[in-house]
Amino acid sequence: MTKSENTDHIWARAEIESPCIKVCVIHPESRLCTGCLRSIDEIGAWSRMTAEARSGVMAELPSRAALVTKRRGGRAARLKS
Predict the structure, then answer these.
(1) Per-residue pLDDT tens digits for 22-78
(2) Phi/psi of residue 34, each to 5°?
(3) Tell me: the pLDDT tens digits for 31-47?
(4) In this structure, are residues 27 and 43 in contact, taking their beta carbons and an 8 Å threshold?
(5) CA-CA distance, 63 to 58, in Å (whole number)?
(6) Contact assessment for residue 58 and residue 16, using Cβ atoms and an 8 Å cutoff
(7) Where does 1-81 show beta strands of DSSP type E?
(8) Is the overall model pTM greater than 0.90, yes or no?
(9) Which pLDDT band holds residue 17 (cuts at 50, 70, 90)?
(10) At CB < 8 A and 24+ separation, what contacts does 58-65 make?
(11) 27/51 Cα distance (integer angstroms)
């Protein structure tokens, strides 16, 4: 059992689970987390949201994937030149 598996039960609650995958990086253009696709406001308010509000956010997440596009350039692009 990994350390994460040992401690994840501490944060478990009887409510709609967070879509967080522990990859917390905010996309500079869309302002969405590239891991879970929530906005910074949704992430901050998650623990205070109603079950209905959380369900609404969860339903929207798949449609947000296109807003978080892969960055162009970077080291790989420079090496190709």
Answers:
(1) 989 999 889 999 999 999 999 999 999 999 999 999 999 999 998 887 655 566 666
(2) -70, -15
(3) 999 999 999 999 999 99
(4) no
(5) 10
(6) yes
(7) none
(8) no
(9) confident
(10) 58/16, 58/19, 61/19, 61/36, 61/37, 64/30, 64/32, 64/37, 65/37
(11) 26
Torsion sign across C-alpha atoms 26, 27, 31, 35: negative
CB 39 within 8 A of CB 27: no
The owner of tokens 């253009």 is 29
What is the number of alpha carbons within 13 Å of residue 5 lying toward its C-beta?
A: 2
Q: What single DSSP character describes residue 33?
A: B
The residue among 63, 62, 57, 59 whose CA lies nearest residue 39 is 57
